[in-house]
Specification:
The chain is 56% helix and 12% strand. It has 11 helices and 7 strands. It has helices at 2-24, 28-41, 46-58, 62-75, 80-92, 96-109, 114-141, 145-160, 163-187, 221-237, 308-311; strands at 193-197, 211-213, 242-248, 273-279, 284-294, 297-300, 304-306. Strands 1, 2, 3, 4, 5, 6 and 7 form a 7-stranded antiparallel β-sheet that branches. α1 (2-24) runs antiparallel to α2 and α3 packs parallel to α5.
């Protein structure tokens, strides 16, 4: 019996050496197969599982590689190599925080390992970058203007004297703002347009559309004046309740609304972004939505309220309501 056990152990060692030769030659599939044969003969040998884990990692069979790394640790919890293997697999899975924990365990068992220390330092930076990328994607996908514009809802209802209409106008602004931000995130540009909230009962749907393109409005003082006159007439004849203008900052060649305003002049420098100007008979608002690039992705910042009298993109579209204080 002793001779049989010894011969099986010798066969296992021999197979391990064969597996190592295949591994060194870059034949990871053959190496994994030979290590498997060795494990069948000596299933309690942590080195075999460690070696097969490395082979599986090269073959990008990550779940199998992780399972072998875990078995290595189970068979010899004091051996740094099992934790190192586990860390390498988790790194490949981009589970950086878990990988760091595994490498820290390896370092506890071999504090002199500069390789493990370097990996921990590198992965700590990668984990930070990955976290920021996730944060950027969350900012880009979780757009909630209702929360940001919330205080405006009661202001609209009070000025309009109608809670239901105030809600409709508020929802209209939120919809336009969110659509503009999503569009900017996708392309980094917006077509200049004015969105109208039309009266469903009075507006002639076949004559008045809810969106008017104004891409030529900022080419000259003449086109700007003509556009404004058209928009005012359109708002009146279509029985619109409100309007929301959206235009990218780069599209505005005239008027350069942030110039010549003294202490109220433009304070955002060369930052890219777009304007949203809300118009109604009782309330006017203007926002600038600044944009930046993070991790290769466009990200809109929170809209910033501007002084509409100083920076209006177009003059007042609706005739001012007598009820407006």
């Amino acid at each position: 019996m002793a001779e049989t056990a010894k011969s099986e152990e010798d066969a296992g060692v021999s197979l391990k050496d064969q597996g190592n030769e295949f591994f060194k030659a870059g034949n990871f599939l053959k190496a994994a197969a030979v290590y498997t044969q060795a494990i069948k003969k000596d299933s309690s040998n942590p080195t075999l599982y460690s070696n097969r884990s490395a082979a599986f990692l090269h073959l990008v069979k990550l779940n199998k590689a992780l399972a072998d790394a875990e078995m290595t640790i189970t068979l010899n919890p004091q051996w740094e190599k099992g934790y190192f293997r586990k860390g390498c697999v988790l790194e490949a899975m981009e589970r950086y925080d878990d990988a760091i924990a595994a490498f820290q365990a390896a370092l506890q068992h071999n504090p002199q390992s500069t390789e493990v220390s370097r990996k921990i330092k590198r992965l700590t930076q990668l984990a930070k970058e990955k976290k920021r990328v996730q944060e950027v994607e969350n900012i880009r996908s979780n757009i909630d203007m209702k929360k940001y514009l919330g205080p405006m809802k009661s202001e609209l209802s009070d000025k309009l004297g109608n809670e239901e209409l105030g809600q409709s106008v508020f929802d209209f602004i939120v919809q336009i703002m969110e659509a503009a931000i999503k569009g900017w995130h996708e392309t980094g540009k917006l077509d200049a347009k004015v969105n109208f909230l039309l009266d469903k009962e009075k507006t002639l749907a076949d004559k008045y559309a809810p969106v008017v393109n104004i891409d030529k409005a900022f080419e000259s003082p003449h086109t700007h004046s003509s556009c404004f006159s058209f928009l005012r007439q359109y708002a009146e004849e279509s029985f619109a309740w409100a309007a929301c203008l959206v235009v990218s900052k780069s599209s505005i060649s005239y008027p350069q609304v942030w110039k010549g305003q003294g202490s109220r002049k433009w304070k955002h420098g060369q930052i890219d972004g777009f304007f949203v100007q809300f118009e109604s008979p009782v309330l006017r608002k203007l926002w600038f939505v600044a944009s930046s690039t993070e991790k290769g992705r466009l990200v809109c910042r929170d809209p910033e309220v501007l002084d509409v009298t100083a920076h209006e993109v177009v003059p007042r579209i609706f005739r001012e309501s007598l009820n407006n204080p």
